[in-house]
Design a protein that fits this description.
Elements: E1 6-10, H1 17-28, E2 32-34, H2 41-48, H3 55-71, E3 77-80, H4 86-95, E4 100-105, H5 108-116, H6 128-134, E5 144-148, H7 153-165
Parallel strand pairs: 1-3, 1-4, 2-3, 4-5
Helix pairs in contact: 1-7, 3-4
């Protein structure tokens, strides 16, 4: 890719966004941001208690991520963000029209197993069902690619890079 994209690594909890995002950023030579760092404390408290966030909880969070992505337009960057609903991705695109999405996808059993082995993360496995129920996969008119999460982080990153290379250059 000649002009760096701003990439949103998306997917349900446990797909590896926090692992793949930095690996992808390193390979692309761009900065990486973790969407969880944009959450206000009230959102983290709700999720830690096993309470799914409402759309109203998410709007300021998505706006902050969109602002970061907008600031990276033409420079490139990677940010991890669940971006489960089309309306969430539309909100990100309204702030940063050139973003592209890498949707990390995988079998529910694999994702649940990976989540059960995580330590120090606020998202409990109990919320996985609500994540899958909320998920609206990328549509044909959305700039992005789906990448399977089976295999090692390096293999997943390589698949993501290969898929991204097929996308047109960003429109600034």
């Amino acid at each position: 890719m000649n002009t760096p994209h701003v990439v949103v690594v998306m997917g349900v909890a446990g797909t590896g966004k926090t692992t793949i995002g930095p690996l992808l950023a390193a390979r692309l030579g761009v900065p990486c941001a973790e969407a969880d760092d944009f959450h206000p404390p009230a959102n983290i408290a709700k999720m830690s208690a096993g309470t799914p966030l409402t759309d109203e909880d998410r709007w300021p969070w998505l706006d902050a991520i969109g602002d970061w992505a907008h600031g990276r337009a033409g420079l490139g960057g990677v940010v991890s963000c669940s971006a489960l609903k089309r309306s969430y991705r539309d909100r990100l695109r309204s702030a940063a029209p050139g973003v592209v999405f890498v949707h990390l996808t995988g079998d529910r059993a694999l994702i649940e197993d990976r989540m059960s082995h995580r330590q120090g993360h606020f998202m409990p496995t109990a919320l996985l069902d609500s994540q899958f129920a909320t998920l609206q996969p990328l549509q044909a008119d959305e700039a992005g690619v789906a990448v399977d999460v089976s295999g090692s982080p390096e293999e997943i990153t390589e698949r993501a890079l290969h898929a991204l290379s097929s996308l047109p250059e960003p429109i600034l």
